């Protein structure tokens, strides 16, 4: 989908407001805690899948607190970590220092990357760029900043599983998005991803994978954890805070989902499989 808005138009204003809201949301809670507790393996996996090596120039889009970016820098790559929400860069810089690496942190919307055409050998985004609402624009940007023959690697939410169901609840209870905004969950649809990248890429490889989470004693612990830390869940409860019946509905729906996807035994600790889609492709050499 093409964005027809130009600065100064109503559509551009709408988009600016939406991005400001999304930035505010992603700064809530404690994203770095969620990333390191639950999703930190994604960074290692994406860097491995993209075969990142020393000396390459890497852009991590919607980098959060550096999950992928820090691992790429540890391999000796020159890394730029970009994100809509600079409020999280402090935690990222701290984490990078602890890993003994330095990155460049740049505030940027995935739909308008402030980089030159073909500037990067590898462009990554782990469950990040999927949250920008105009998917075609995002795919176009990822392809544009990647050099011909370079690699693009992404992690998306799989079309079934705990993560998918939790995000479905978040989307259903959040304020409605503008009509041209697409759900992040669509990036889990392989046909959609194929269409977005089209013939500008080759060997588009998509693999469904699972991350095992065993840190919660029971489903209620997962829900409490998400309510306290996950930016979008914190934002959702803030949004319905004045309406006790909506708070109760949310509590019930999240607990139902956490219970449904608990793969632990009746008496043992809860065990979750976070299902995701690993996407790796290469920009065609003209
Ligand atoms: C689930 S976090 C993933 C962060 C990181 N990639 C990781 O693996 O931990 C989603 C990130 O997407 C960012 N984000 C959301 N919309 C964005 C947009 N339009 N452009 C750039 N980043 C965006 C958020 O600020 C947040 O840091």
Can you walk me through this structure?
The protein has ten helices and seven strands. The chain is of the alpha/beta class and 286 residues long. It folds into two domains: 12-212 and 273-283, Vaccinia Virus protein VP39 (Rossmann fold, 3-Layer(aba) Sandwich); 219-260, no CATH class. A seven-stranded mixed beta sheet has the order 3-2-1-4-5-7-6, sandwiched between helices. Strand 2 (78-83), helix 4 (89-98) and strand 3 form a beta-alpha-beta unit. Helix 2 (31-49) packs across helix 3 (67-74), helix 8 crosses helix 9 (231-240) and helix 8 (219-229) crosses helix 10. The two termini are 23 Å apart. The mean pLDDT is 95. The structure holds S-adenosylmethionine. Residues 19, 22, 26, 35, 39, 42, 62-64, 67-68, 83-85, 88, 109-111, 126-128, 131-132 line the site of S-adenosylmethionine.
Helix-strand topology string: HHEHEHEEHEHHEHHHE
Distance between the termini: 23 Å
Q: What assembly state would you assign to the polypeptide chains in this entry? A: single chain
Q: What class would the helix/strand composition place it in?
A: alpha/beta
Secondary structure tally, helices? 10
The profile of the biggest β sheet is:
7 strands, mixed
The structural domain count equals 2
Residue share in helices? 40-55%
What is the CATH architecture descriptor of the largest domain? Answer: 3-Layer(aba) Sandwich
Tell me which ligands are bound. S-adenosylmethionine
Query: What's the average pLDDT?
Result: 95
- Number of separate strands: 7
Task: Report the CATH superfamily of the largest domain.
Answer: Vaccinia Virus protein VP39
What percent strand?
15-25%
Strand order across the largest sheet: 3-2-1-4-5-7-6
Q: Rounded to an integer, what's the Rg over CA atoms?
A: 19 Å
Task: Choose one word for the global shape.
Answer: globular
Uncertain runs: none
CATH fold naming of the largest domain? Rossmann fold
């Amino acid at each position: 989908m093409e964005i027809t808005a130009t600065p100064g138009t109503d559509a551009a204003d709408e988009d600016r407001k939406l991005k400001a809201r999304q930035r505010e949301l992603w700064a809530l809670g404690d994203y770095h805690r969620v990333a390191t507790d639950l999703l930190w393996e994604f960074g290692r996996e994406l860097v491995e899948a993209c075969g990142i090596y020393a000396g390459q120039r890497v852009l991590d889009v919607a980098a959060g607190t550096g999950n992928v970016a820090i691992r790429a820098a540890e391999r000796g790559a020159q890394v730029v970590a970009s994100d809509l929400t600079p409020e999280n860069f402090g935690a990222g810089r701290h984490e990078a220092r602890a890993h003994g690496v330095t990155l460049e942190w740049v505030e940027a919307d995935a739909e308008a990357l402030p980089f030159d055409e073909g500037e990067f050998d590898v462009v990554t985004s782990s469950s990040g760029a999927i949250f920008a609402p105009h998917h075609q624009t995002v795919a176009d940007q990822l392809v544009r900043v990647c050099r011909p023959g370079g690699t693009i690697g992404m992690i998306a939410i799989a079309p079934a599983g705990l993560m998918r169901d939790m995000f479905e609840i978040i989307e259903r209870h959040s304020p409605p998005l503008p009509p041209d905004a697409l759900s992040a969950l669509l990036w889990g649809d392989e046909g959609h991803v194929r269409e977005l990248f089209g013939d500008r890429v080759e060997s588009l490889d998509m693999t469904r994978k699972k991350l095992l989470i065993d840190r919660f004693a029971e489903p209620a612990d997962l829900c409490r954890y998400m309510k306290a830390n996950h930016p979008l869940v914190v934002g959702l409860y803030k949004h319905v805070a004045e309406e006790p019946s909506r708070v109760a509905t949310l509590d019930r729906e999240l607990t139902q989902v956490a219970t449904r996807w608990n793969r632990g035994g009746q008496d043992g600790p809860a065990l979750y499989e976070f299902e995701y889609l690993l996407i790796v492709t290469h920009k065609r050499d003209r």
